[in-house]
Amino acid sequence: MSLPINIGAVLHGQAVEWERVEFKEGWNLEEIVHSICAFANDFHNWGGGYLVLGVKTADGKPVLPPHGLQPEQADAWQRKLLELGHNLQPDYHPISDVTALNGKLVLIVWVPGGEMRPYKAPVSLGGKNREWAYYVRLHANTVRAKGGIEQELISLANRIPFDDRQNSAAQVADLQPSLIQSFLAEVKSDLQADVARLSLEELGRRMQIVRGPAEAPRPLNAGLLFFTPEPTRWFPQTQIDIVHLPQGRGGDQIVEQIFTGPVGVMLRDALAYLRNNVITQFVRKHPDRAEAERYYNVPYAALEEVLVNAIYHRSYEEREPVEVQITPEEITILSFPGPESSMKMEDLRAGRAVPRRYRNRRIGEFLKELELSEGRGTGIPKILRAMRANGSPEPVFETDDQRTSFLVHLPLRAAPTKVEKPPAPEVTPEVTPEVARLLPLCRDPHSRKELQAKLALRDEEHFRTAYLVPAISSGCLEMTIPDKPKSRLQKYRLTAKGRVWLESAAAATKQ
After folding, report:
1. Among 29, 130, 289, 476, which has the minimal tally of Cβ within 10 Å of its Cβ?
2. Do the domain assignments include residue 1?
3. Domain end position, chosen among 158, 184, 202
4. Residues 119 and 42 occupy one common structural domain
5. Positive or negative, the Cα torsion across 220, 222, 228, 232?
6. Residue 293, beta-bridge partner list
7. Average pLDDT of 314-341?
8. Contact between residue 398 and residue 332 where contact means Cβ atoms under 8 Å apart
């Protein structure tokens, strides 16, 4: 059985944090049942964790090549795991997979956060009168929960985050296999090798985006948000509104762009739009030195972090979009609700606040695997560092007493007051008749299939060689995901040079 995570990522601390991985060279029943209990309790809402059996550690890091297991050991240990699940109250059964690493067999035990937490495990497996206790993960260690930690864990009972709940209004068939396959390929999951032979339901269960009895399986909200073409069917206003106000908030001119679709796709499309249409680089020359100073009106790293955090931490139960407003003075990002009440605003503004609990643990897991979020309380410090490194004014964070919303102000750094060399005038590019037919269709991003259909062209190779490649080579068209040309999510849109050509063509037509 394959797991929805790459084995190399687990062993080398990539995609999942070390706090979520525990290595064991041998088979100690009590330690293993305590670790399963701790990961299932998921005290910090990280999504559970992984036990790697057959790997020795030194200073907390795996020693490779691994010590490994004999085939008969691996089979016996997997059977024993089923018995161990009955040693927890309530019962809990993790998912295991035997895999080869450097010619040795290791047993990976995936322990997702349990729906029926808190879980108890026996302190000792010996004797008839067992003592039971709660266990949690703290600083990469499995420890017995006591005092305030135990009380807080108990208070989490049956409090399943919204994104990890089953959606009774949806069906497993609402999940789109192509989106799931694209995700697994991008994160290099071992599970992608099994996709062809698995039913959609079984694939969903392996990925922990489908739960429920066999006679009535249901997708989880997180699965619907990431792996359906239109999540707004179930979660209205799951969108990013980008609003340009060139004349300021008191002006009459408003330019709006709305991004929808699967959360990962929606977020990347919005970020690409901001990077290509909003962020501007400036060059300031100094008379006392040869080197010119280069900076941006707003650093992309800060803008990306704010928008990713808004998507990560917003409530998908509230029918409010994430809104980005762009004025001549600043960019603001508004989301609902605000930070959790345990976070002090003065700590947050100083970059010291660390959330004790994440609102959307499953959404966070998917964003981390897509390398869009770190999810370890690093967002605010990263924003502050990026703004300071760019020489920008300090960002401003706002919320109200009830924490109903969160508003982030990113002040824009002004252009140089003196420019030695004016920018070169834009030259209208020359294009072929085929490219001239294609460009007017690309004012909004479209996939290759969509553009080909609009042009009523059946031959994909002809479309690529006669239309698409020349348009990109001319600089009039660009990919939305340039670092992954073969991505299933790839789309094409006009560049600034392409817009110049369209304006020139329109003027020539009027004449």
Report:
1. 289
2. no
3. 158
4. yes
5. positive
6. 284
7. 91
8. no
Residue 343's pLDDT band, with cuts at 50, 70 and 90, is low
Question: Up-side HSE of residue 469: CA atoms within 13 Å toward CB?
Answer: 7
Q: Which is nearest to 24 in space by CA: 69, 75, 70?
A: 69
Cα–Cα separations (whole angstroms), residue 18 to 9, 61, 62, 99: 11, 9, 11, 20
Tokens of 246: 């060139």
Let me know whether 443 and 401 are in one domain: no
- Do 229 and 245 lie in a common domain? no
Please tell me whether residues 319 and 370 are part of one structural domain. Answer: yes
Domain boundaries, position 257 = 240-411
Which residues lie below 8 Å from residue 202, measured CB to CB, with a gap of 6+?
Answer: none
Name the token pair of 448: 């290759």
For 457-497, what is each residue's pLDDT tens digit?
A: 989 999 999 999 999 988 899 998 888 888 888 999 999 88
Residue 357 burial (C-beta neighbours within 10 Å; 0-12, 13-18, 19+): middle
Tell me whether residue 231 is exposed, middle or buried, using C-beta atoms within 10 angstroms of its C-beta: 0 to 12, 13 to 18, 19 or more.
buried
Reference 496, options 429, 422, 438, 447; nearest CA is 429
Rounded to whole angstroms, how far apart are CA atoms 457 and 106? Answer: 51
Q: Same domain, yes or no, for 116 and 221? A: no
Calculate the average pLDDT of the chain: 85
Pairwise pLDDT comparison (27 vs 266), residue with the higher score: 266
Neighbours of 20 (CB within 10 A): 21
Please classify residue 488 by burial: count the beta carbons closer than 10 Å to its beta carbon, then call 0-12 exposed, 13-18 middle and 19+ buried.
middle
Q: Tell me: the pLDDT tens digits for 387-418? A: 999 999 999 999 888 888 999 999 999 888 75
CA 494 to CA 436: how far, in whole Å?
12
pLDDT recorded at residue 422: 46
pTM of the model as a whole: 0.58
Cis peptide before 65 (omega within 30 of 0): yes
If one counts the domains in the chain, the total is 4
**Does a structural domain hold residue 420?**
no
